[in-house]
Amino acid sequence: MYGEFFDIPAPDELVFVSTFSGGEAIRGGCTFRRGHGKIFYFSPGDQDYPVYHHRDVRKVIANAVGWARPELARRPPELLRYETDAFFDGKSYTGAIR
């Protein structure tokens, strides 16, 4: 049975507490921030209880992906083309063309 003591760092936010019929409880959803990254730990069940097909569990996972998405937009790499006509003869080379 899962239960506390659950040896993880103190979460930044506690989102879910999972409880069991025997009275056990464990942190089932936690968020962490590390550097520029975000981590969402989520434990909705295990192989004996296939809850990953449940609509609400799938919604939690989708929301977590959206939350953890990087805030800084990454630009795709820019491919520079070089005009080589004048480059090889050393006359009037202007560099990269955007």
Q: What structural keywords apply?
A:
98 residues, alpha+beta, 3-stranded antiparallel beta sheet, 1 helix, 5 strands, 28% strand
Q: What report would you give on this structure?
A:
The chain is an alpha+beta fold. Helix content is 14%, strand content 28%. The protein contains one helix and five strands. It has one helix at 55-68; strands at 13-19, 25-34, 37-42, 81-82, 96-97. The strands form two sheets. A three-stranded antiparallel sheet has the order 1-2-3. It has a two-stranded antiparallel ribbon with strand order 4-5. A hairpin with a 2-residue loop joins strand 2 and strand 3. The longest helix has 14 residues, at 55-68. It is elongated, with a radius of gyration of 25 Å. The model has no long low-confidence stretch (mean pLDDT 79).
Question: What secondary-structure arrangement, pairings included, does this model have?
Answer:
Elements: E1 13-19, E2 25-34, E3 37-42, H1 55-68, E4 81-82, E5 96-97
Antiparallel strand pairs: 1-2, 2-3, 4-5
Summarize this entry quickly.
The chain has 98 residues and is α+β, with helices and mostly antiparallel strands. It has one helix at 55-68; strands at 13-19, 25-34, 37-42, 81-82, 96-97.
